[in-house]
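Example 424.
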Amino acid sequence: MEVSIVGSGYVGTTVAACFAELGHSVVTIDVDEAVVEAINDGRAPIHEPGLGALVAEHGGDRLTATTDYGVAPETDVTFLALPTPSNADGSVDTSIVEAGAESLGAALSGVEDHLVVVKSTVVPGTTEDRVEPALTEGGADVDVAVNPEFLREGSAVADFTDPDKVVFGTDGGRGVETLRAVYEPLVAEVDPPVVETGRREAEMIKYANNAFLATKVSLINELGNICKAYGVDAYEVADAIGLDDRIGERFLRSGVGWGGSCFPKDVAAIIAAARAKGYEPELLEAAVEVNDRQPGRLLGLLDSHVDVAGKRVAVLGLAFKPGTDDVRESRAIPVIEGLQARGAEVVAYDPVATENMRERFPEIEYVASAAAALDGASGAVVVTEWDEFAALDDAFDAMAEPVVVDGRRIIERRDGIVYEGLTW
Ligand code: UGA
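Predicted structure in complex with uridine-5'-diphosphate-glucuronic acid:
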């Protein structure tokens, strides 16, 4: 099929490259000339395992990019994969999606039988109330469907090509057939459950998925905090409760909490959406509150062993999770702020996220290895579970005061150091 995708961010580029791999001809539309040039040259504009190889293979061939919406009418279907950032009150800002829909609508004016698919994360009713009107105000005759994306940063290609589910939200019109055709090669290959539902339901499924997972992590963090108070190892507890199929073993890693570009934004958005309808979502609010408290608990454990004022403290890990250089809403941010408020001299290390964090905290010291961060430090806090931290051993001997507070259960050494786990 001929597929166009508006937006070449994480989701748009990954989906475009994967659709090309499935045999479709894909063109992405993006305002960023550098991104367009990269794709046409066969270079992935973002760092994501497996994506480079796909873009190298198909870029400039079955996968092309342009800044011109005018290509959309030549395709069978157009996906909108534009960002939906947060407003100051946490509600979702749909202005970028609406502006994209307007430009697309103008380009599609006079075209018949075209399907537009919203892949962006939007609250229930947005497609119907905002995107569809924006698309059709120029006279375009289009069907509009919703197809949320569940891929994770760091495993985006693998998640897309072998998904737990695929969700098609349509208004009951022809859209569902086009969506089935687009996904047919994927279904033929890995046969994921395909959920065919309404548009509002599809929009809500995305939020419910992320809100559930974020709350699951906050619940294990809350239980973990209780475990710590009673000298219980939360990971042994999690391993056991995870054996109950109704609970499941995944997303039970307790520690310094969730960050990233999705959980914080999406939980805030669904809370705001609930309030807009007069419902106070107390459980989700509590999930956010537990998450907000974990960095302070990490620092509290450090305080109980060392007064860090005027001393060097190592922060190990800056990315919001391993496998990415993304620092958006990383727990490292409140941890660094807390250390600064205590008058500590922060020395940070991350294998890939240093440059991104430097933009946020230009004033702290960044070093090229975990060992260099630990050298002379009176305390270390672990914020991201990079594998390489597990292998740190003698490096702790170079600390001025060997106090290590682990927020991710990754450090293996125990002897000869003061080791505190956040929930164990
Ligand atoms: C998340 C969802 O997992 C994806 O399904 C979804 O598509 C995506 O958001 C999105 O909405 O775009 P992502 O933010 O890339 O994906 O990362 P996750 O692997 O889900 O991790 C999120 C945060 O939770 C990280 O900070 C991670 O450290 C934390 N986490 C996760 C825990 O603290 N404990 C766990 O057991 C699992």
